[in-house]
Amino acid sequence: MKSFAYVDAANEQEAIAALGTQRGRILPIAGGMDLVGLMKDYVAQPDRVVNVKRLDRTIAATPDGGLRIGAAATLIELVEHAGAARAYPALVQAAAEVGTPQIRHAGTVGGNVAQRPRCWYFRNEEFQCLKKGGPRCFAVDGENQLHAIFGDGPCHIVHASSLAVPILAYGGTFRVAGPSGERDVAAADFFQMPDENLMGENVLRPNELVTHVTLPPPGRVRSATCEIRFKQSHDWPLALATAILTMSGETVRGARIVMGAVAPVPWRAQAAEAALTGQAVTEATAGAAADAAVRDAKPMSGNAYKVQIARTAVKRAILKAAGLPTV
Ligand SMILES: Cc1cc2nc3c(=O)[nH]c(=O)nc-3n(C[C@H](O)[C@H](O)[C@H](O)COP(=O)(O)OP(=O)(O)OC[C@H]3O[C@@H](n4cnc5c(N)ncnc54)[C@H](O)[C@@H]3O)c2cc1C
Ligand code: SF4
After folding, report:
1. Least distant ligand from the CA of 93
2. 313: domain range?
3. How many domains does the chain have?
C-alpha cells in the first residue's frame, strides 16, 4: 500500500475542509471495508484519507413521518433499528444481507452507497480499462459473467450497493455537503450511467460527502427486497430486486420495482410496474411482471444466465411484498 496521510475529522465541517478538488488524491474513509481493499491493490492511491466516521450516525423519524439516516450509521445499526424495520422492511432486508456480521458492523450507509465497482478488471492494477482512463473495456471480450445485462456501456459494471436499490425504490434523497453548501439530490438523479460519468458512479464532486439519506413517509405500502447470490455466505448478489406495492384491497394500485446488480445504476423496471398495476398479486401476475422487467435485457457473451436470475429476484420480491410464498 502506498503511504498516505490521515486526517481524523471531528465533524462534517472539518471533513469537508480536509477534502480537495482533484479526483482520487484525497478520499473520505468510513468503515474502510471497500477503500482499504482498493488501496491494498493500488487501485486507489490517495495522498490523504479523511475519517468521516464522525459524521452524523443517527437514524430518526422526520417530522412528516419519513426517516433520516446519518451517513456514518453502520449497516448493523440500520438492521437493528425497529422503526426502520417496521416502515422500510425492503431497506432493512437489503442491509441484513450485506457481507458478513463483521462487514455490517464496520461498514456505513454512506460508504455502502459510495462504494466503487467490483469489476475484476477495475480492481486489478494491471488493467488500465476505460474507467481508469485506458483505451477499452476489457469486459466486452473478456470475463463478463458478473457484469451488466442492462445499459449500453461503454463501461459494463453493475452498481455494487445493495442499499441503493431500496433507497431508489422508496424515493429516497441524499443530502450532499461540500465547501459551497449543501444540496438534496434525489436517488433517481444521484447514481450516474457511464456515458454521463465514466470515472465515477454518482454526482459527488471530489470535495463533497453524502451526509444523510432521507426516505419519504412510506404510506400504506407493502415492500420487500429479494436477493440471489451464488453462495449463501458473504458475497455480493448476482441480482436483487425491491418491490413496493400500493394496494387497494387485493389489487395493486401502484408499484415501484427496482433491480440491482444488473446495470451500472439501480435499474427501475417500469414495464414490470405497469404489468402489475391493476392486478391481484398471484404467482402468474408476479411472473408476468418479472418477464416484463427483463424483456429489454441485453446480456453480454458470458452472462445470459443473469437474465433468469434477475427475473426470479423480481418475481420473488413481488410475492414476498404481498406476503405470499416465494417458492
Ligand atoms: C466480502 C464482502 C461482501 C460484501 N457484500 C456486499 C453486498 O452484498 N452488498 C453491498 O452493498 N455491499 C457489500 N459489500 C461492500 C460493503 O458493504 C461496503 O464495502 C461497505 O458498506 C462500505 O462502507 P464503509 O463505511 O466501509 O466504506 P469505505 O470503504 O470507508 O468507503 C467506501 C467508498 O465510499 C467513500 N465514502 C465513504 N463514506 C462516504 C461519504 N459519507 N460520502 C461520500 N463518500 C464516502 C470512500 O471514499 C470510498 O470510496 C461487501 C464487502 C465485502 C468485503
Ligand atoms: S466494466 Fe468498466 S470497470 Fe470493468 S473493465 Fe469495463 S470499463 Fe473497466
Report:
1. 1
2. 222-321
3. 1
Inside any domain, residue 142: no
> pLDDT tens digits for 70-117?
999 999 999 999 999 999 999 999 999 999 999 999 999 999 999 999
Query: Is pLDDT above 90 for 127?
Result: yes
Among the listed residues 263, 165, 270, the one whose alpha carbon sits nearest the alpha carbon of residue 223: 165
156 ligand 2 Cβ < 6 A: yes
Residue 235 lies in a domain: yes
Span 54-76, average pLDDT = 97
Which CATH number goes with the domain that contains 301?
A: 3.30.390.50
> What value does the CA radius of gyration of the chain take, rounded to a whole number of Å?
19
If one residue of 43, 103, 158, 258 were mutated to test the ligand 1 pocket, choosing by the most ligand atoms within 8 A of its CB, it would be: 103
Sheet holding 237-248, edge to edge: 221-229, 237-248, 251-260, 267-268
Q: What are phi and psi of 243, to 5 degrees?
A: -120, 130
